[in-house]
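C-alpha cells for chain A. Residues wanted.
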C-alpha cells in the first residue's frame, strides 16, 4: 500500500540548466518500490501549484548494510512545480506519496531485455536494469535526446554492464536522429529464435514507434505511459489510456491504477 511521508531532501544535483536529480530520504517508500512505479510529490506548501506531480523512481539509495534509505527522481524544469524542485535545498522537505502504479514485469535469462528511453523517460530504467542484471539478463539501453547535453547517467548503466546505444536529434552524440532508428536496425539484426522483451518510456510518439516495431518483429513490449496525473490514486480520471482487453474490446483505463506500464500490444493509439 502507498504511504504519504514527509521526505527530507538529501541532495540536489543539477545536471544542466533544466535537469536535476533530487535525493529524498524515504526508506519506507524505497523498500517497497518496484521498477516502473512512481511517486506523487507536492512541490509547494501552498496552493500554487495545487496538485502533486508524478515522478518515476530513478535510483534506490541504500545504507552501508544494503538497507533502502531513500530514492532519487530525475526532473526536468518545465513549469512552476518542477522549477521549485530545481531550486530545492538539502534539508527542505517534500510530501511524497508512493509507491504507486503497476510496475514492469521482469523477465529472466535467457530472455534479452532492451530498454528504450527518450528524455526523462530514462528514469524507470536504472532500477529495472539493476533487477534484470541480477536475474542474468543481457540488457541493452537505447537512449535518445535532442542533443548530447541532455544525455545523463550513461555511466550508471555502463557500471551495470548494460550495453548502451545513443542517438541525438542533432547528431552531437551517437546516431543522428530519433532513437527508434538504431532500434529498428538492431531489431532487423536480432535472432528471431532468441527471446527478447522491449521496455519503453518516453514521449508518446516514441512509444507508438516502439510498439509498432516490436509488433512488426513479433516481439512483446511493455510501455510506461507518461500521462498528466492529478491525484495518482484513480480519483480524478485525468490520466486515462485506451487499451484493448482480453476480449478485444477497447476501453479507457486509469494509468495511475492499471498502469503506468501497459503491454504495447494492448494500447489503442489515438
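Reply:
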Amino acid at each position: 500500500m502507498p504511504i504519504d511521508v514527509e521526505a527530507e531532501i538529501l541532495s540536489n544535483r543539477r545536471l544542466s540548466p533544466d535537469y536535476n536529480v533530487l535525493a529524498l530520504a524515504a526508506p519506507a517508500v524505497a523498500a517497497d518500490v518496484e521498477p516502473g512505479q512512481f511517486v506523487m510529490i507536492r512541490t509547494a506548501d501552498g496552493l500554487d501549484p495545487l496538485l502533486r506531480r508524478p515522478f518515476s523512481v530513478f535510483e534506490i539509495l541504500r545504507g552501508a548494510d544494503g538497507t533502502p534509505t531513500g530514492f532519487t527522481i530525475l526532473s526536468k524544469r518545465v513549469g512552476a512545480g518542477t522549477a521549485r524542485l530545481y531550486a530545492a535545498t538539502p534539508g527542505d522537505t517534500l510530501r511524497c506519496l508512493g509507491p504507486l502504479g503497476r510496475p514492469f514485469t521482469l523477465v529472466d535469462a535467457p530472455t534479452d531485455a532492451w530498454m528504450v528511453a527518450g528524455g526523462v523517460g530514462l528514469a524507470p530504467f536504472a532500477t529495472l536494469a539493476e533487477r534484470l542484471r541480477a536475474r542474468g539478463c543481457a540488457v541493452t539501453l537505447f537512449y535518445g535526446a535532442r542533443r548530447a547535453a541532455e544525455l545523463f547517467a550513461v555511466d550508471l548503466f555502463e557500471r551495470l554492464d548494460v550495453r548502451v546505444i545513443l542517438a541525438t536529434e542533432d547528431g552531437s552524440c551517437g546516431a543522428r536522429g530519433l532513437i527508434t532508428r538504431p532500434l529498428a536496425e538492431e531489431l532487423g539484426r536480432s535472432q528471431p529464435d532468441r527471446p527478447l522483451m522491449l521496455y519503453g518510456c518516453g514521449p508518446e510518439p516514441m512509444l507508438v514507434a516502439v510498439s509498432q516495431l516490436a509488433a512488426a518483429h513479433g516481439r512483446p513490449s511493455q510501455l510506461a505511459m507518461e500521462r498528466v496525473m492529478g491525484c495518482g490514486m484513480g480519483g480524478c480520471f485525468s490520466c486515462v489510456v485506451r487499451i484493448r482487453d482480453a476480449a478485444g474490446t477497447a476501453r479507457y483505463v486509469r494509468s495511475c491504477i492499471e498502469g503506468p506500464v501497459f503491454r504495447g500490444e494492448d494500447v489503442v493509439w489515438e
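The CA atoms of residues 9 and 90 lie 5 Å apart. The mean pLDDT is 94.
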